[in-house]
Amino acid sequence: MPVLPPCNLLPPPFPLSQLNFIPQHDPSSYKGSSGCRFLTVGASPPYFGALAYASAATLQAGADMTTALTLEDAVADNLRNCPLTSAETMVYSSNLLPPPDIPNFSNSISGTLIGPGLSRAPSSQSWACTVASSLPPSPSKCIVLDADALWPSSSPSILETLLPPRSPLILTPNIVEFNRLVSTHLPDSSNYESESDKAQLCKLLRTTLNVTGIILKGPTDIITTEHCQLTCSTNGSSKRCGGLGDVLSGLVVVFVSWFLKYSKAGDVSVALWCACAVCRESGRRAYGKKRRAMQAKDVIEEIGGVVEEVWPLFDE
Ligand SMILES: NC(=O)C1=CN([C@@H]2O[C@H](COP(=O)(O)OP(=O)(O)OC[C@H]3O[C@@H](n4cnc5c(N)ncnc54)[C@H](OP(=O)(O)O)[C@@H]3O)[C@@H](O)[C@H]2O)[C@@H](O)CC1
Ligand SMILES: Nc1ncnc2c1ncn2[C@@H]1O[C@H](COP(=O)(O)OP(=O)(O)OP(=O)(O)O)[C@@H](O)[C@H]1O
What we know:
By secondary structure, this protein is of the alpha/beta class. It is 40% helix and 13% strand. Helix 1 packs across helix 2 (73-80), helix 1 (48-61) runs parallel beside helix 10 and helix 8 (244-262) runs antiparallel to helix 9 (269-290). GO terms for molecular function: ATP binding; ATP-dependent NAD(P)H-hydrate dehydratase activity.
């Protein structure tokens, strides 16, 4: 076990040894071979920035390759021209990679994120349902649903398309999205007051949906899995700019995929906590430098440094 340098997110609320699920670089590996290839699905006008943030976060955390999939050619063009994603991200529209091709394509993918900037338009929702249902189920490949992928659209919703889950399924709602999930799936529990009620409701929602995990984002992130409930309230940025949830969702798909591939002990809540803590610590550093001018892209720039500090590479 390496000696970990001091960092704002250490020590974690679980044994330090459980942090040991992040791969080292192996000279014999080839691009994407170490569980470092991801698929991000979303982006509709005017929200293409959200998928750019999420995809860029995966790359900064350590992904070898990330492929962004959008419905429309025009949005794909926007993403290709976006400084955050151009060159590093392969961008497909549904014309270039239609759902019948997704099962083959997704064999090399370690995890999929659906939702950032997707929009709630029925055409986007039903396209994302088709994409979700064409992902081959696998116990080692996670699916993360965020933002508009949590919208209770006409039946079945994207979430309902994936139920009962045949792959590890993680939901990352903000408080508004969480309240919508509760009123849709737990209509008798919609009135809750305290933080502990909220934590109990997270447990009830996770059990009802039978998903692998839920992160309820907020001043304190509440992380709920089958065996564990953790909170993450390490210092973050005081500025609440748009796009921080997108950054978190990109980190979640990377950390959970690595956990499923490399972890030898512990619960997936460890991976969810790491994603939250890295997002907050990156926000704290970006805010320290940029103050009022901080944007999500500044947070993304800090991710690589935080990850290296906690999980240093042992280069020869
Ligand atoms: N650059 C981009 O492309 C970005 C694109 N994005 C994409 O935008 C899409 C819409 O996502 P969204 O979450 O902004 O939903 P939206 O319907 O506007 O919110 C509904 C209303 O809820 C409230 N509210 C929200 N959060 C709250 C909170 N924590 N606590 C309390 N209240 C809260 C608030 O109500 P208000 O305060 O205005 O009354 C708000 O107006 C989605 O696809 C997402 O991925 C974003 O990721 C950002 C960067
Ligand atoms: N009041 C807060 N104080 C500190 N951190 C917060 C606070 N609210 C949210 N966060 C953190 O900010 C990140 C994004 O959460 P937020 O609730 O803003 O997501 P979101 O609404 O989905 O974001 P987006 O703008 O991408 O749609 C999470 O890592 C969460 O831990």
